[in-house]
Amino acid sequence: MVLSGMLVMMASYTAIGQHTPKRATRNESFEKFDIEDFEVKRAQSVEGGKNLNHFQLADSTEIFRAGYTGYYTDEQIPPKPSFFKHYKEFYLSGFIKVRGISFGNLTIGANGVKVGKWIYFDEIGNVMKTVDEDAKFGRFDCKEVLAFLDKESLIDVKTGKNRDKIKAFFEVLENGRKIWIVEVITDFLADAYKKG
């Protein structure tokens, strides 16, 4: 019944004619950064020394919100065993600018390899484009990297072991060859400095 109501609504909008200005439509993926809450917590952070915009949710998801010249960010690191970080960037108006997932460096503020679908928005919240970042990998994507590292016992995909010790980079050479560069530091040794 809801579907037929939507069709009637769409048909009546079309019948109104071309003189009616088209309103911007925001889909379900639209988000807005809470600037007021961020600024209050930033001011309190300065007074108390602790960054109140860096906190954990009840499920252990780590969240870090930051403000820069020209934009805001919201990074979320889900609890183990996830090996991915959620990244959101917002315009100064607070409207979402870009949202996606990265792999390979789960520290706050660090860049990882973009994976999955990244969605880019205009300044009023409309989707401008969606980029499938997995397309660049070909047959060996980050899931294959995780499976390889798990097989080598450098990580454990079931428990999240060593997830915070992975640094990954991906590049496509001029000849089209695709290369993953992955480092997993498992130990720091006095004589060799690091092992992994």
SSE inventory with pairings:
Layout: H1 2-16, H2 35-48, E1 54-56, E2 62-68, E3 71-77, E4 84-90, E5 96-103, E6 113-121, E7 127-132, H3 142-151, E8 166-172, E9 178-184
Antiparallel strand pairs: 1-2, 2-3, 3-4, 4-5, 5-6, 6-7, 8-9
Task: Describe the protein in words.
This protein has 196 residues and is an alpha+beta fold. The chain folds into 2 domains: 27-135, no CATH class; 136-184. The protein has helices at 2-16, 35-48, 142-151; strands at 54-56, 62-68, 71-77, 84-90, 96-103, 113-121, 127-132, 166-172, 178-184. It has a 7-stranded antiparallel β-sheet, with no helix packed on it. Strands 8-9 form a two-stranded antiparallel ribbon. Residues 1-25 have low confidence and may be disordered.
Give short descriptive properties of this protein.
196 residues; alpha+beta; 2 domains; two-stranded antiparallel sheet; 3 helices; 31% strand; disordered N terminus
SSE series: HHEEEEEEEHEE
Weakly predicted, low-confidence segments: 1-25
Q: Write out the strand line-up for the largest beta sheet, numbering strands in chain order.
A: 1-2-3-4-5-6-7
Alpha carbon gyration radius: 22 Å
Percentage of residues in strands: 25-35%
Average pLDDT number:
83
Major β-sheet annotation: 7 strands, antiparallel
SS summary, helix count:
3
Principal-axis shape: globular
User: Helical residue percent?
Assistant: 10-25%
The total of beta strands comes to: 9
Strand pairing plus helix content: what structural class? Answer: alpha+beta
Q: What distance lies between the first and last C-alpha atoms, to the nearest angstrom?
A: 59 Å
Number of domains: 2
